[in-house]
Amino acid sequence: MSDAQVVTRFAPSPTGFLHIGGARTALFNWLYARGRGGKFLLRIEDTDRARSTPEATEAILRGLDWLGLDHDGEVVSQFERAPRHAEVAHQLLAKGAAYKCFSTQEEIEAFREAARAEGRSTLFQSPWRDADPATQPDAPHVVRLKTPQDGETVIEDQVQGRVTIRNDQLDDMVLLRSDGTPVYMLAVVVDDFDMGVTHVIRGDDHLNNAARQMGIYAAMGWPLPVYAHIPLIHGPDGKKLSKRHGALGADEYQKMGYPAAGMRNYLARLGWSHGDDEFFTDAQAQEWFGLDGIGKSPARFDLKKLENLCGQHIAISDDAALLQEIEAFLAAIGESALTATQRDGLLRAMYCLKDRAKTLPELLEKAHFVLTDTPIQPDEKASKNLDTVSRGILASLTPHLQDASWSRDELEAVLNRFAEDQGTKFGKLAGPLRAALAGRAVTPSVFDMMLVLGRDESLSRLARAAAEQEG
Fold first, then answer.
1. pLDDT tens digits for range 291-323
2. Known EC number(s) (predicted)?
3. Low-confidence winner among 137-151, 226-240, 305-319 (lowest mean pLDDT)
4. Edge-to-edge strand order for the sheet containing 174-176?
């Protein structure tokens, strides 16, 4: 196994959006494969025809795409492989590892009721398990796997440790329904084997499934994959994260403006750790990620930690990449695309926007001065900084700036000198300047805005603010 190429898979059911727990499972599989030069495959488990929808498949693919979790090869549809799953069930029948069971639902229920009354195990024991094929009727039947009746099944799990289940607690699992269609448990095993999956990394709600699925591997003589069952994610209240208490899909986090790199970093840290490292890049995550770093207890989702990491990722982002992410965010929330002028302005301003913005909406709010239309319309808070006295100060200041060389040092010197001449501190000038240049009370530094806007635009905004009459 150590020399073989690592192959992992993410296998969601398309019954809704990409849940944040599913996104983390996909991320763990992606990191494990990418860090070892392996393959990360994607399979859509769409056997439940009543609940699977093309829209949900699209939503899952969009979520993975936003998170940057690229997969190798084509997307596999489990439903389309049903004939292959049935073929394996017939192979098991032929080798005596499975049998046809003709018991009706009524007979099974009667067996369970009698077992309950006598205080016995209600696990159904089919009378057809060892029946002579010659005595079998020509009637509807299911195909069941012959599970060993004594001994135990041992799962050597990379996260949960050694898990032992007594075989007398496992029933003879149905492989084919009476209409001949394969069940999900069979499909998963056949798909994993055919796709060459070496490592099954999934939620620990599948741990009991592993014991039953191992029976199929054993009966077919197939090598077992390495199992790693990861704990579920809990909400801040310690209960399982669910739609019930506001758990959202990955696409909702994109619409809230969290950058994908920050989301990847946060989800990687949710239940996995590498020493005390909190903030790390994709390259570091791929290099460090291993199954031995996954904890056994559920991780708690913490929005504050997510925001903190996202802020750090925005700060170190490449400007062009960040611009691309902003444009994808605006498209996701249905906002109109940026104009060429706005894109250009944003790129010029990026150096003074990236610090201290934890989300893309926060960054865009700081960028208002370069995105807004002129003439500037100050909001309510900014308007309070543009009273008659302030407008008079701006009118007096403008001539001092006209001959300035428009470097940061020169602008600082001019404004500080002017404040001194007015018998005040620069801080007192900042409010009116922010209001005039951005129409907002909270902005990047006045000097940064003036440098980004340039001499002509800055002077034009100051002159307009100074000239406008109140009210």
1. 999 999 999 999 899 999 999 999 999 999 999
2. 6.1.1.17
3. 226-240
4. 98-101, 142-145, 174-176
Domain boundaries, the chain: 7-75+233-304, 80-230, 317-371, 380-467
For 7-75+233-304, which CATH superfamily applies? Answer: HUPs (3.40.50.620)
Asked whether residue 243 is marked as a ligand-binding residue, the answer is yes
- The verdict on whether 146 is a catalytic residue reads no
User: Is 380-467 a domain of CATH 3.40.50.12780?
Assistant: no
Which pair of tokens denotes residue 446? Answer: 């006045």
Q: Using the predicted structure, report yes or no on whether residue 1 has a pLDDT greater than 50.
A: no
Contact in structure between 62 and 251 (CB atoms under 8 Å): yes
Rounded (10°) angle between helices 388-402 and 426-438: 90
Type of residue numbered 230: I
Q: Which of 39, 95, 146, 243 is catalytic?
A: 243
**DSSP label at residue 8:** E
Asked if residue 465 lies in contact with residue 386, where contact means CB atoms within 8 angstroms, the answer is yes
The predicted model gives 231-243 an average pLDDT of 83
Q: What is the mean pLDDT of residues 260-288?
A: 96
The 8-class DSSP code of residue 366 comes to H
380: CB partners within 8 A, 6+ apart: none
CA proximity to 271, closest of 313, 305, 243, 222: 305
Nearest to 308 by CA among 377, 352, 362: 362
DSSP character for 293?
G
Beta-carbon contacts of 307 under 8 Å, excluding residues fewer than 6 positions away, are 258, 358, 359
DSSP 68-122: T---SSPPEETGGGHHHHHHHHHHHHHTTSEEEE---HHHHHHHHHHHHHHT---
Q: Which residue has the tokens 């994709």?
A: 282
CA distance 272 to 290: 9
The model's pLDDT over 57-84, given as tens digits with 9 standing for 90+, comes to 999 999 999 999 999 999 999 999 999 9
**Residue position matching structure tokens 């067996």:** 111
CA nearest to 243, candidates 414, 39, 452, 16:
16
HEC assignment per residue over 262-279: HHHHHHHHCCECCCCCCC
Q: Measure the CA–CA gap between 326 and 259, rounded to whole angstroms.
A: 9
Tokens of 23: 């996104």
The amino acid at 378: P
Q: Hey, which CATH number is domain 80-230, 3.40.50.720, 3.30.70.860, 3.40.30.10, 3.40.50.620?
A: 3.40.50.620
Domains 7-75+233-304 and 80-230 share a fold: yes
CA dihedral defined by 11, 15, 20, 22, rounded to 10 degrees? -10
User: How far apart (Å, rounded) are the C-alpha atoms in residues 40 and 72?
Assistant: 6
Q: Express each pLDDT in 321-330 by its tens digit.
A: 999 999 999 9
Which positions ≥6 away from 148 have C-beta within 8 Å? Answer: 167, 215
